Structure formats: structure tokens, C-alpha cells
Amino acid sequence: MTSTSLDSFKARKTLKVGNKTYEYYSLKAAEKNGLKGISSLPYSLKVLLENLLRNEDGRTVKKADIKAMAAWLKKKRSDREIAFRPARVLMQDFTGVPAIVDLAAMRDAMTVLGGDPKKINPLVPVDLVIDHSVIVDEFGNARAFRANVKHEYERNGERYRFLRWGQEAFDNFRVVPPGTGICHQVNLEYLGQTVWTKKQKVTDAKGKTTTVEQAFPDTLVGTDSHTTMVNGLSVLGWGVGGIEAEAAMLGQPISMLIPEVIGFKLTGKLKEGVTATDLVLTVTQMLRAKGVVGKFVEFYGAGLNHLPLEDRATIANMAPEYGATCGFFPVDEDTIRYLTQTGRAKGRVELVEAYAKAQGMFRTPRAADPEFTDSLQLDLGDVEPSIAGPKRPQDRVLLAEAKPKFLEALNSEFGKGEEVDKRAKVTGESYDLGHGDVVIAAITSCTNTSNPYVMMAAGLVARNAAKLGLKPKPWVKTSLAPGSQVVAEYLAESGLQKELDKVGFNLVGFGCTTCIGNSGPLPEPISKTVNKADLVACSVLSGNRNFEGRVNPDVRANYLASPPLVVAYALAGSMQVDITTEPLGTDKKGNPVYLKDIWPSVQEVADFVRNTITRKMFREKYADVFKGDANWQKIKVQGGLTYGWDSDSTYVQNPPYFEGMERQPEPITDIEGARVLGLFLDSITTDHISPAGSIKVQSPAGRYLVDHNVKPLDFNQYGTRRGNHEVMMRGTFANIRIKNQMVPGVEGGVTVHYPDGKEMSIYDAAMKYWKENVPLVVFAGKEYGTGSSRDWAAKGTRLLGVRAVVAQSFERIHRSNLIGMGVLPLQFGEGDSWQKLGLKGDETVTIEGLADGLKPRAELTVQVTFADGKTKKVPVLCRIDTLDELDYFHNGGILHYVLRNLAA
Questions:
Q1: Among 40, 41, 209, 298, which is disulfide-ready with 45 (CB 3.0 to 4.6 Å)?
Q2: Statement to judge: residues 727 and 799 lie in one domain
Q3: 3-state secondary structure 755-824
Q4: In-domain check, residue 369
């Protein structure tokens, strides 16, 4: 690839490291040549600035864009739109399969348009890690791992064959096979480099072209919101929708406004008995209260000197939970330690240190603090043991208050306050169940399984409990799903896996299990009892997501906790046990055992980490990371330039996005006479809009699968069927806990079709409106679309015929995704809402101002006509924020825009 850099600020320099010489764009040189004061920028903005300097071409990156980065220092904010080009793209298979399906569909569409399908290839490196497909069917025994792997390949054969085809058909595309680990942990331990290098042909202003090896900050976007985890390794990246990632893969820059940067100052150090999980739950709560949606967060202060990179990665991972675009940590001595420890090449580690120091990007204890838009502060010594729940990651509860807070939620959230002591006998068992009983205890998710300190602590709690004869309560489904094979290696090497096995935490698989909804079914007697008695059953998991309906359809209250606390709650068996003061169980002599009796000291945990984990473990486990096990290698691939779609497949189908597409887009028109598909309240998540978990037999998606001869046992999850638009359309707004206010008091994907007033599934109503040629709108409250960067929440919305979503506010990724699928996001003015308008759902809606030269952030008008014929007009803000986004919307979506450009 040839890069034309105008180099207006004479930043191109060379850097010699060992016996190698690299070209780089020097921030110090740029500061001397016109960008005054940039050395005091936040480290994260220095990464963006370098990206602009290196990619200055006078078209997508102008000199004025670069100057705007320096001007940011005056107000500590900017309304300047810039074009960011990430070095690479990361995917997991839930989101990655539909992205590769779209690329395959684009090749077909390119052929129809008379273009060259070979043009459809990733132009930047893409890594797809298959990590979201393993389900915890078997648990609590030595067979669990092998049994779950077997089921995984049986269920996902079609998807895996498709990915094997993609690996061979597309250039610049690698697949990390199943059973390796979670994408974010593999990224942290192996893929991420902190400083990236590539051979590049560079043409200067005089037209002279040379080939150089460039060094620049490692940056990425990922099709999973927790891509931010690698910010702990000083790699700037965040989650985007699959459609936005596809555009980045195809050479399109990410359009963004220069962000505000909130500084988070850390002082002191964590005290005895407090874990990184407790810290991240505290940070999440503080930043949610601060309000950082759409902003960068950057951590600084002397507290970083006592915070190992593994803890930083835990904090960075949960940026989506505190609402920020990213949670960035600068390079320092601990970054170098971690890169060395995890087996990165010696030359790469030396380059990272030399480059960061040359660029003024290396944090030292004596360095001046950067300038931030705003800041907040936390003394690490003030952090207390915590959990979060029962429904949101930011709802932190002090561990000492967990029991009374659960009882409070039992009344306020679940309306069961009068039934605190209710118990129901489990058929065929010697025990009964009640509200608050923990039926799932899962050590799961990238957030914590990447952190050896909390994983070792869990092993030590298990060892101490087993020594005293404690066991998990018989109704608890226990599981351990590490984020990488390295974790299994060090747990085995330390002897702690045997201890975890004794209390039911056997290895169930490598991947994102319970946190994504792959918790698997509860044992049938327990499931039946929970549902028949209408119990509020609980899960405790070491994950980052605990939204309604996500973890398991039988579980209504979900709590995030550190791995050692997950073990403790498995032993206690109930949220109605105060584990800080009440016994977890009794020892072999019948004496009560308390949490303090089995909790390890900070020093003991640190000793286990230091004495067990070696650089060799990482080198060996990642030596053949793309090879896969015998199951993967057995998959037969029939290659070809375009994919041979199987019309009988229920996993992979050619999506209809490009049907009837012409080389030129049609003009934008006003939306007239639209009907309301749904009225929703605040905090509607992408899980509500497009669930990832189990498919109910009686749901529209379930009926489709039954009609295609799929047995309910083989339904798999929505997430695994994201390559089939027929399933995903039917799953849109189908979360079992979603509440459409058009049908008050009813949970699930139900609406009312008008004018006939018939109640039916949202999918059935949408298809009826489609036949009637009636456009649709959705109304919502605040924070619409929070949660994972789920492209199907936008794709499904568009395929149902929704033309616009009118909300009080949007989460960043989902707003972008809606535009990427040609759906218009509109925001009520301050104080306005659909409730204030008095909507019931039987109205018709017209959106005016689209046809009159639509501009970014224009004020438009929503006219509502009520059933009695009266009308109301309300001004709304068009949340198409940039000119690039306007181009995408004008084309009907980002893929259409890219395809037309490539065809031209």
C-alpha cells in the first residue's frame, strides 16, 4: 500500500533501535514546527494526533485537522471531525460471522454491479477469534471440557466451515480457532503489540516514493465493545458495530469528533482483602455518575505505580459499562514488564520502550500530569469489597450490604417483598429452593479471567474451603471458563485447578460463556421449580454484563463479583446469606466456617503468581495459535472467490441488503405516515433489541427453526445464528424481558398492530406493515442501545422496516450502527419525551426536513397525528453527527457506500 503524507509539520523522522531503523512521525518535531504545547496533551490524544500526522493527505486528513488537535488545549474540547485509521481490526465469532457474511454478500453484489469481486478484501489486518460459541452444557465434573467441545462442533459446523472458507478466500484475514481463549484476552496476551510496524511505500510532497518500515502506536477497532480491554496495554481501541468495522477493513477511516478526555487520578494502593474487581466496580459506578458517554477516559496519578497491568486491563475492559469510548493507560515500566512476561519478541519490547520515550508517551512518576477536559480522583485505599447487581454493572453494592440490598430489590425490582421466606421443594431432590438462591456461580468472562491475581485468589479460596470439607450447595451450577490456555496452564502448574475441581469449578471450556448468555440450561428439576414457583433465582459471575434476560432465562437477578467471591457464593448458595458475617457452611466437625477463614492474603496471592507464571507458558501456548485442535483441522473447505450459499442452512444465508441496489443512491425523502412499532423506557440495551441468548420454541425465531426441521435441543443461541438474517430479524426486540409500553404489564417482544388493534409479536406486526407498505418508527427514553456493540440490533431494526428511532439519548455505538444501516437516530430536546407527547402507540408519525438538504445535527420536526385526528409537532435533533455519517445515510448504509465507491 502506498501512503502519501504531506508532512506539513515536518514530523517524519527515523528511530534506531538495536540494529534496525524505523520511520516514525515525531510529536516532538511537530511541536517545534507549529503544534505548540502538544506535549501536554493526554496520552490518548497523542495517539490520535500521530495517526493524523502519518495519514495527512489533504483530503481525508487536512492540515487544519492536525492543528485542531493542538487547539484542543484551549478549551479541552473540540467540535472538529477527524478521520481515524486504526492499524487493525479484531472480531469475535458472534459479531465476526455476520461481518464475513457481509463481505461475501458484497462480493456477490460487486459481481451484479459489474465490478471486480477481488476488490472486496480487508485492507488492514483482521483477526477473528472464535470464542463465543462454547456453551456450558456439562459442568462440575472431569468430562465437562471434552463434552462441551464436542457439542460446540456439532452445533456450529456450518459456521465453522464458512469461517474456514473466509480464512482461505480473503487476504489479510486470520482466524484463531475455537478452544484458544477469549478475543480480548488473546489480544492482551498475544495480538496486541503496543507499537505496530509495517512496510510502507511513502510518497513525499515532491512525488518521491520510498519503501520504509514505519513504527506507530498499535490501534484497533473491534466488533465487541470490550475491545477496550487492550487499553490497559496502551493500545488505543474501542468497540464498533460490525458494519463500521467492515468499512474500516475496506479502507474507510473511522469518522469521529475529537473527544473530550476525562482524567481519572488514582492515588494510594489497594488494601488487604480488596481485589481488582472491587476496584473496577467502584470506578464504573463513579464514571457512570460523572457521565462519560462518548468521551475518552485516561488514568493517571501515583496510584498507577501500585497497579499492575493485569489490574489496568480489568479496568479498561469495562469502559462500555462506565459508558466511555475507552479507558486508556499510558506506557510505563509495568507495560514493558508485561510485554516481556507474556513472551513478546525482545526486539518488539525494545522498540516499544524506545518509541514511547522518543514520542513523550512514556509515563514516569516524575512526569507532569497531562491536561484534561475534566477529572475525578480515587484513593485506592478507599475501595471496599463489592458486587454489582441485580441488573446493571454500575449498580455497585458493598459486600457487607449485599443481603439487605437484595431483599430491597426483591421488593422494588421484582415485587416479591412479601415472599422473603418462600421455599419450594425440588422434585426428586432432598432440598428446596427460595428467592435469592444462587443457581449459577461462574468464573467467566475476559474481565477477570485475564487477571492472575483474582484467578489465583479463587483457587486459594477453593483450596482453603476444600481443606475444611466445604462444598457448593447442590442447586448451584458451577463453572470455570478461562480466557486463555495460559490460565489453565498456571492453575494446573500451581496445583490450584485440583482444588477448584473439589468445589465444582472444573474447566468447562475456553471462551466467553455465562457472561454472553452461554450458561447452558439449568438441571431440569431446578429449572422447573424456579419457573413453577415463580422464584427470583440468582447468578453470581465474574463477568461484565448482568442485564435482564442475558445470563439465563430462568435467572432474574444477576450479580457481578470477583472470582474468589464467586466461589464463596457457590458455597453459601444464596444472596440471602450475608457472607461477611454469616457462615458459608460447616467444616468436617460441624463448626461454622466464615469467609475470613478461607480468604487468602494479598501476599499469598502475589507469591503464587510470582512463583508459577513464566514467560515460557505464554511462548508455548501461543506458538501455534492459528492451528487449532484436531476438530478444527478436520473441517473440509471448498474454496472459491465467492461463497457457495446453501439455501438449506439455518446458520449462514445471503442477506438481502443489496437487493435491487443501483450504482447511484436515491434521494433522501421525508418519512410520512409511519406507524409506531414500540414505545420503550430508559436503558434499553442491545440485549433487549437483539438478544444473544437462548431461542424460545414459541418465539418467531423458534417457529422458523422448527419449520426448517431444527429440533429445539439444537436451536443453539441467537448469537451463533447471526449469519442468518431470517433468524435475527425474528429475534429483533424479542428479549423475554423487554417491555413495550404499548402493551403495559407484558414482557417480551409483543406490540399492537394498527389500525386493527390486534396484539401480536413485533416481528409479525412488522411483516404485516411491510406488506401494507407502511414505514415504522420506534420511540425510547434515555441511553437507548447501551451494551455490546451489536450490529444486529441495528440490522434487525432496519430489516423490520424501522426508518427512525426517536429517543432522549443514545449510546455511542448503537447510534453509529443505526446510521450504518440507514436508520435515522433522532433525539428529543431537553425535557421532551414520548410520555410528554402523550403517545399510546396508535398514532401516525411524519418526520419532516429530510428532503430539504439534510445536514449533520440538523433540527428536524416530528409531527404526530393522534387517533382522534389532532396533531402535535415536536422539534428533534438529527443525530447524524458528521458529514461521513451523512454520506452513509444517503447511501442507505455504510456497506452500500463502500460498495458503490469500490464499484466506481
A1: 41
A2: no
A3: CCCEEEEHHHHHHHHHHCCCCEEEECCCCECECCCCHHHHHHHHHCCEEEEEECCECHHHHHHHHHCCCE
A4: no
The percent of residues above 90 in pLDDT, for the chain, comes to 84
Among residues 529, 439, 425, 523, the alpha carbon closest in space to that of 476 is found at 439
* pLDDT, tens digit, 9 for 90 and up, residues 447-489: 888 899 999 999 999 999 999 999 999 999 999 999 999 999 9
**707 and 834 in a common domain:** no
Residue 557 to residue 391: CA distance in whole angstroms: 6
Residue 189: DSSP 8-state = I
Q: Write down the pLDDT at residue 308.
A: 96
What domain range includes position 723? Answer: 692-731
Integer Cα distance of 120 and 111 in angstroms = 11
Does the pLDDT value for residue 206 go beyond 80?
A: no
Q: Which region among 207-211, 323-327, 579-583 has the lowest average model confidence (pLDDT)?
A: 207-211
For the chain, give the mean pLDDT.
94
Domain CATH code at residue 467: 3.30.499.10
831: phi then psi, degrees, rounded to nearest 5: 90, -15
Which H helix or E strand runs over 572?
A: helix 563-572
Distance CA 107, CA 655 (A): 12
Q: Is residue 748 part of a domain?
A: yes
Q: Which are the contacts of 591, defined by CB distance < 8 A and separation ≥ 6?
A: none
Strands 871-878 and 859-865: antiparallel
Q: Any idea which of 370-384, 590-604, 634-648 has the lowest mean pLDDT?
A: 634-648
Residues 699 and 686 in one domain: no
The answer to whether residues 894 and 801 belong to one domain is yes
CA-to-CA distance for 256 and 79, rounded, in angstroms? 10
Backbone angles phi, psi at 283, to 5 degrees: -60, -45
pLDDT for 99 beyond 90: no
> Dihedral of CA 367/34/295/333: which sign?
negative
Distance of CA 660 to the CA centre of its chain: 33
Stretch (H or E) spanning 468: none
Q: Output the domain CATH number for residue 789.
A: 3.20.19.10
Is residue 417 located within the same domain as residue 518?
A: yes
Q: How far apart are CA 128 and CA 245, in angstroms?
A: 12
Each residue of 524-544: pLDDT tens digit? 999 999 999 999 999 999 988
Structure-block grid coordinates of residue 677:
412499532
CA–CA separation, 699 vs 473, rounded Å?
A: 34
Phi, psi of 126, rounded to the nearest 5 degrees = -125, 130
Does residue 724 sit in the same domain as residue 602? no
State how many domains the chain has: 3
Contact 636, 484 (CB under 8 A): no
| 847 shares a domain with 748 | yes
Answer whether residue 1 shows pLDDT above 60. no
Cell of 172: 489479510
pLDDT class for 3, splitting at 50, 70, 90?
low
Provide the whole-model pTM.
0.85
Residue 2 pLDDT greater than 60, yes or no: no
Angstrom CA distances, 777 to 212, 243, 789, 797, stand at 52, 21, 22, 10
- Chain-centre distance of CA 130, in angstroms? 15
- The answer to whether position 402 is within a domain reads yes
Burial category of 703 from C-beta neighbours within 10 Å (exposed 0-12, middle 13-18, buried 19 and up): middle
Cα-Cα end-to-end distance for the chain: 20
Angle at 690 between CA 685 and CA 691, to 5 degrees: 90
- Domain identity same for 805 and 856: yes
CA distance 275 to 563: 9
**Is residue 128 a contact partner of residue 177, using CB atoms and an 8 Å limit?**
no
**Residue 463 lies inside a defined structural domain of this protein:** yes
Q: At what angle do helices 93-112 and 791-799 cross, to 10 degrees?
A: 50
